[in-house]
Amino acid sequence: MELNIVFTKTFSLYDEPFTTAEMIERYSGVKRRSINKLITTNKRDLEEFGVLRFQIAKPTKGSKGGRPKKIYQLNEEQATLLITYLDNTPQVRAFKKELVRQFYAMKTELLQHQLVRTSGKAGRREMTDAIKESSVLSDKWYVHSNFTKLLYKTALGFDVSKLREARGVNKKATPLDFLNKAELDALNKRQNQITTLIDLGMDYQAIKDVLSNQGVSIKQR
């Protein structure tokens, strides 16, 4: 099974991984009508493991007819409980194993993200300290703001505001909360480079000239 069946809305540390009734239908071989009926029939049981969430999916543009569809989003416990209600066919068993594997993989990735983010905070403090201690840089607040913009732009190709737009998150959201591990790694690497260049006595413009605009690609959601 190559396609992802477990998701998270962003890579925020507080996001809860989930799968959908649509994914269960696609890979278990059970019709969505039957799955939705199981969900509504066992709604109270499922709600013991969290809010039973859903999204309304509109018909695709250009399609003829059709109505908006309610797509249930199930957390790990809800999905695990629901699939116990399905007939234990070979396809369902294969799906169950893949679901367990992908929930575990997603939790592992979020844990790695948390560890990288924590190290990123440490790196960011070092860059801030380097700015404060620099005898070359003046107007520390303005310089810090410019270095922040430079950091994101050169590491990820987006400034912070464009990054939020690309991810579809709130304007006040902290960028470090919704970057994936590869993006955090790129950001931390760039922070270390900027800190080193500041410590070498270079000013903002010189550092900007040194840094390339290459970085990891931001994933649109």
Description of the structure:
It is a single chain. By secondary structure, the protein is mainly alpha-helical. The protein is built from nine helices and three strands; from the N terminus they run E-H-H-H-E-E-H-H-H-H-H-H. Helix 5 runs parallel beside helix 8 and helix 6 packs across helix 8. The chain is elongated, with a radius of gyration of 23 Å.
Strand content: 5-15%
Number of helices: 9
Taking the sheet with the most strands, its summary is: 3 strands, antiparallel
Assembly type of the chains comes to: single chain
In which range does the helix fraction lie?
55-70%
Secondary-structure element pattern, one letter each: EHHHEEHHHHHH
Q: Estimate the mean pLDDT confidence.
A: 85
Q: Separation of termini?
A: 22 Å
DSSP E strands, number? 3
Strand numbers in spatial order across the main sheet: 1-3-2
Low-confidence stretches: 213-221
Tertiary shape: elongated
Structural class, from secondary structure content?
Answer: mainly alpha
The Rg value, from CA coordinates, equals 23 Å
Which key terms come to mind for this protein?
three-stranded antiparallel β-sheet, 221 residues, disordered C terminus, mainly alpha, 7% strand, 57% helix, elongated, single chain, 9 helices
List the helices and strands and how they pair.
Blueprint: E1 18-20, H1 21-28, H2 32-41, H3 43-47, E2 53-57, E3 69-75, H4 76-83, H5 90-133, H6 140-156, H7 160-167, H8 181-199, H9 204-210
Helix pairs in contact: 5-8, 6-8
